[in-house]
Design brief:
By secondary structure, the protein is an alpha/beta fold. It is built from 18 helices and 15 strands. β4, α4 and β5 form a beta-alpha-beta unit.
């Protein structure tokens, strides 16, 4: 309780404040009644010292130092019975107490002993703390119940505003207004938050609540700012007042609101992280080829916008490392710090992409950010997208000091080809880093036949592959393997019998025998240009279809 409130108890009704009136709002945490020359070293912040003046009686030269030391410690007040030992306090002492705002209280007119004053004062302080504790617990339960009933953080802000009879604002981590009370609707939220945003921008982050008096406004000039933290800074809860004399109970209500809002944000963050982890694991499995069925891939990826029809392209973003060749002095960041930093960068990148006219889903893979863009009717203007990515890289570096580069894979239609697009995007990134670039956007430039083949629907590719090699299905597995391997090598060596034999380590007659057998089984002239193209395409499809050649 504050000193002014303590002085209202009956036993202190005759106490007089003779100096330091400006400090009557100091909080009294405890009472000390010791009389010893070295009493100062035993005092604590919030102590009110009761004394009969004996320790100061014969030391007039030490009075000023004694008061100054009490103020430096953070004591609440000095309460003394000056008439007990005829203690005379000098005018200089009064001036110092007034300057420091440390109250000096005269107790001489109180007939009770210091012990009785001590006992009843402590009792009043404990009763007040008990009342505050019950109030805080009640408010905490009220806010927690609201969260459990699904009413959400905006309802807490509005209820808190009604308790305080003052407008309340909630600022997010980016200093945006995320919730505001309906109190004082004649004043818009931006007018209430504007001066405080200026203060926050001009001062370093603070971890404890602060009170401000805003000289730039006429109404609700006084404000309390309470920072909200989970594992990171989440924003500020702000209350505006007409008067600076906000009660201790109002502060307690604000503190409990901060606690409950912090717990709710922690819960939401945990749910978001779990959902994001599932998404990351899904795309990682898809990229690494652990999901072999298109049906399974589409079923699991439906929630992320993946569809059987339509084209997509994968963009990989990566934080640029130092290219100066100078070793870093700081140790590697801890895993918690790495994850926290990665999540913060994830949100920044996502906000930038949300401004583009693109349908996309984001995920993370190790230290990389994947942006899967869904193309509309195969519309893909690569040059335009590269310009957009370069603008994003420049904006992130300017506004958030995040140096980021992008690699772009080739478009594809089959969801299982995301792994190939990922490899292409990584190669595009590596090519930029090999040129010692930063904040760039590179696309995979190789226009090979696989890019064209990937634009063909998966089912049609599979049917073409099956029909081409169907005549081999009825053969013995070992024989089928030999024939397929010989035919593939024959085309890879430009239909040269001798070169094919050397590659397979067999006699040229063996190659001729196997090729003739292939012609009998298929009924096709394998040297005919159109038939040669058919078999070459079928072999080229195997890597796209994840078909294991016998």
């Amino acid at each position: 309780m504050d000193l002014q409130q303590l002085l209202t108890i009956p036993i202190l009704s005759k106490a007089k404040v003779i100096a330091g009136h400006r400090g009557l709002d100091r909080l009294v945490q405890s009472i000390n009644i010791m009389d010893a020359p070295d009493i100062v070293q035993f005092l604590k912040p919030g102590d009110m010292l009761l004394t009969n003046g004996y320790i100061l009686k014969d030391r007039p030269d030490a009075h000023l130092g004694f008061i100054t030391d009490m103020h430096a410690i953070g004591c609440a007040a000095l309460a003394v019975k000056t008439q007990r030992f005829s203690l005379e306090l000098s005018p200089q002492l009064f001036e110092t107490a007034d300057r420091l705002g440390l109250p000096i209280i005269e107790l001489s007119e109180i007939d009770n002993t210091l012990g009785e004053i001590f006992q009843q004062s402590i009792s009043a302080i404990l009763q007040n703390k008990t009342h505050e504790l019950h109030y805080a617990l009640s408010i905490h339960n009220q806010f927690s119940t609201m969260i459990m009933q699904g009413k959400g953080i905006p309802n807490i802000v509005d209820t808190l505003s009604q308790l305080l009879s003052s407008p309340v604002l909630l600022l997010g981590s980016k200093k945006q207004i995320t919730a505001s009370s309906h109190y004082a609707q004649q004043i818009d939220d931006l007018s209430l938050a504007g001066p405080l945003l200026t203060f926050i921008d001009e001062h370093p982050p603070f971890h404890t609540a602060i009170s401000l008096c805003l000289l730039t406004t006429d109404k609700y000039r006084h404000a309390e700012l309470h920072p909200i933290f989970t594992d990171r800074h989440e924003g500020y809860l702000i209350a505006r007042y007409d008067s600076s004399a906000s009660s201790r109970l109002s502060t307690l209500a604000l503190e409990q609101a901060v606690n409950v809002i912090g717990l709710e944000l922690t819960k939401k963050q945990a749910v978001k992280e779990r959902s994001r982890r599932y998404k990351n694991e899904y795309f990682s499995d898809l990229i690494q080829g652990f999901i072999r069925s298109e049906q399974e891939a589409l079923h699991r990826g439906k929630k992320y916008g993946l569809q059987a029809k339509g084209s997509s392209v994968l963009i990989i973003a990566k934080k640029d490392e130092s290219l100066a060749g100078i070793p870093k002095q700081n140790a590697a960041p801890s895993e918690e710090r790495f994850i926290s930093e990665r999540d913060a960068n994830y949100e920044l990148i996502k906000q930038e992409f949300a401004r583009l006219d693109l349908s996309f889903v984001m995920f993370t893979k190790n230290d990389q950010f994947g942006i899967l863009v869904f193309l509309n009717e195969s519309s893909w203007e690569e040059h335009t997208v590269i310009q957009q990515l370069e603008r994003i890289a420049s904006s992130l570096y300017t506004e958030s000091q995040l140096s980021l580069s992008f690699g772009i894979g080739n478009p594809y239609t089959n969801v299982l080809d995301i792994g190939l697009s990922y490899k292409e995007a990584v190669k595009a990134l590596q090519s930029g880093y090999q040129m010692r670039k930063t904040r760039f956007a590179h696309s995979y430039q190789t226009m090979d036949i696989s890019r064209l083949l990937r634009m063909i629907p998966y089912d049609e590719m599979m049917q073409f592959h099956h029909e081409t090699f169907k005549p081999f299905d009825g053969r013995d597995p070992n024989e089928r393997s030999e024939l397929m391997k010989t035919l593939s090598s024959f085309y890879e060596n430009h239909c040269q019998i001798v070169d094919t034999a050397k590659e397979l380590f067999v006699h040229r007659n063996t190659v001729i025998y196997r090729l003739e057998k292939c012609e009998k089984l298929t009924g096709r002239n394998i040297k005919d240009p159109m038939e040669s193209l058919r078999f070459r395409l079928a072999f080229a499809l195997e890597s796209l279809l994840n078909v294991n050649r016998p």
